[in-house]
Amino acid sequence: MFACLSVAELEAAGLTTYQIALAEECCLRRSRRGHYVITRVCADPRHRFISALASAQTTHLPKESAGLRKRKEDLRILVRSYARSLPPEAVFSHRSALIVHGLPIPFFEDGETICAETAHPRNAVRRPTMLIRRRQLEPGDTVEVGGVPVTSVLRTLFDISRDCPLAFAVAVVDDALRCSLVTLDEFREFCARHPVRTHQARIDAVLDNADGRRETVAESICAIRFVEHSIHGFEPQVVIEDEQGEFIARTDFADEAAKVIAEFDGAGKYFLDGADPKESFELERRREYALRNLGYTVFRITWADLFAADVFLRIKDAISRRTASPAKGLDSRGGSQR
């Protein structure tokens, strides 16, 4: 875990206010007012206490420097800093609960402020680094994970479904289903026992679109983009065979009637299990040629594409043209490529 220290703990270890300020230029980073995260092992003898914690086997040092991973890491650090100082009766909820339970944070909205999220039975407060929501929680809605009070997995999925964008919520629920943390029937039953006066339609939409067959967060977001753009007919993890019944590929999404395939093209797939990226790329190229020879149009979707409309409009157009003119649909050159 990240090593987070309060000013009081640093002062108890013998560091003065001035030395703490100097350590910020060396081996500490401020996570919130009065709290710091250790960033590296340093050789300064005045920071021997900090270095000892940094070099411990159980300590993780911050690594990410930019982008989504950096924001996720910052949230983990912030949650860690509050683990021992939550307001009385408050429990971690929403994205903070996802951190505690090891569930994914699919994305952050543009301009969204990173803060720890909690639920409290009576109070609702927004602070610079903490959002406290007023929520009535039943005894079974909370658990302790590593001594930290947090909403249960089912309650966390329920809160995320109610308060977060559809694509975000479905990606989280899909991951929980895929990892067998819950079943869809269990989640449906929980939602039925907890009707709400606001945003019930959001919860219903998540239940209608959740599918544990999707294998990554990106695939889950992609599936919701199909819904938002009224693209119908795609099924996840479709196995494609040739005329002799020989296996060709298992695709992320395929509309077999229209012979259109959508694949999420994450760069990491070419480095899986220590594989040679050049060899992986060549195998992927041959796989795509085989699919095209069977009459399929293949669209490759990148992470950036998930947050734009262009590729989904082209997919919708390709399906429309192939469905309207089956004869022309056999021409694999009909689809737009990235």
Detailed description of the structure:
The chain has three domains: 1-62, no CATH class; 63-209, no CATH class; 230-334, no CATH class. Helices cover 40% and strands 18% of the residues. The chain is built from 13 helices and 13 strands. It has helices at residues 7-12, 17-23, 48-54, 67-82, 94-101, 153-163, 166-178, 184-193, 200-209, 217-228, 277-293, 310-324, 326-329; strands at 4-6, 28-32, 35-38, 91-92, 116-120, 125-126, 130-134, 142-145, 148-151, 235-241, 247-255, 260-264, 297-301. The strands form four sheets. Strands 4-5-7-6 form a four-stranded mixed sheet. A four-stranded mixed sheet has the order 10-11-12-13. A three-stranded antiparallel sheet has the order 1-3-2. It is globular, with a radius of gyration of 24 Å. The two termini are 40 Å apart. It comes from Brevibacterium metallidurans. This is DUF559 domain-containing protein.
